[in-house]
Write a structure and sequence with these properties.
Elements (H helix, E strand, L loop, with lengths): L21 H24 L4 H13 L8 H11 L6 H22 L5 E2 L2 E2 H22 L4 H4 L2
Antiparallel strand pairs: 1-2
Helix pairs in contact: 1-2, 1-4, 2-5, 3-4, 4-5
Length: 152
């Protein structure tokens, strides 16, 4: 006995290809945003600042995450323009701010313990400050934008 295919069918009986849900469409961009973050950290800090590079990599990899930290910029851009790729650098900056805020919050609340995310506390605080200020500015400065925006 044969079973009919699950899902919707066209009038001619062929199956309609399922479209990814909006949530899955956004989540598909998350690994690209993470890769962008990793590349930016390597490019900005790898050779010149090896200790800060290591601390930033650790904070981004092990820091307390928000499950949707990449989503807001991607969602807004996708709603306005229909795609997420151009918003990936801004999603990376958004995630950096969240990671920095979470790290500072963990330290202030005493939740971090003697080693914050596996790092010495001072290294974690330095990484959190750079993650929340210096690196986002470097990312934003590297984006192509009209000269009138760059001068602002």
């Amino acid at each position: 006995m044969s079973h009919s295919p699950s899902g919707r069918l066209r009038p001619d009986g062929r199956a309609v290809a399922a479209r990814p849900s909006p949530e899955n469409h956004l989540r598909a961009a998350f690994p690209r945003v993470q890769q962008y973050l990793d590349e930016r950290i390597d490019r900005c800090y790898g050779a010149r600042h090896p200790m800060l590079h290591a601390s930033l990599k650790t904070l981004v990899a092990r820091g307390r995450r928000d499950p949707q930290e990449f989503a807001l910029p991607l969602l807004v851009h996708a709603a306005i323009r229909g795609g997420t790729r151009p918003a990936e650098p801004v999603a990376a900056v958004h995630a950096l701010w969240w990671r920095a805020a979470n790290a500072l919050d963990d330290v202030v609340d005493g939740d971090a313990g003697p080693r914050t995310y596996g790092m010495d506390g001072s290294a974690a605080l330095t990484a959190a400050l750079e993650c929340g200020y210096g690196l986002p500015l470097r990312v934003l400065a590297s984006l192509p934008c009209p000269s009138r925006c760059a001068a602002s």
